[in-house]
Write a structure and sequence with these properties.
The chain has three helices and five strands. A hairpin with a 6-residue loop joins strand 4 and strand 5. The chain folds into two domains: 67 residues, Alpha-Beta Plaits (2-Layer Sandwich), CATH 3.30.70.2350; 30 residues. With 106 residues, the chain is α+β, with helices and mostly antiparallel strands.
Length: 106
């Protein structure tokens, strides 16, 4: 297990973890409950960890692309309509934010 990303807060760490898992890389968040101790503890307590060290290089590249906004730019204008609840979803998302239905295959 290897530390990949230091987050400024727990939601940021969980977004990165979810993004990695959506790309087939097992990851976990550690230290999220220590954020309340900032000032008493080091500031880099909330981290995303990669389960398999062999995935580190690919995971690092994915995080860099995510932080640059590559996925959003790549899928801009490719919105889709959720078949479950009819919500309009932006193209970079693979699941409906409202009901959790997966994006249908095209």
């Amino acid at each position: 297990m290897k530390s990949l990303y230091t987050a400024s807060h727990a939601p940021d760490a969980h977004l990165i973890r979810s993004y990695l898992e959506a790309h087939g890389i097992a990851a976990s968040v550690r230290g999220e409950y220590l954020i309340g101790g900032i000032g008493e503890l080091p500031v880099d307590v909330c981290r995303v960890w990669i389960a398999d060290d062999r995935d580190f290089a690919r995971a690092d590249q994915l995080v860099r692309e995510y932080l640059r906004g590559d996925a959003e730019r790549l899928h801009r204008g490719e919105g889709w309509l959720c078949p479950g609840c009819r919500e309009a979803i932006e193209g970079q998302f693979t699941d409906c934010w409202r009901c959790g239905t997966a994006r249908p295959e095209t």
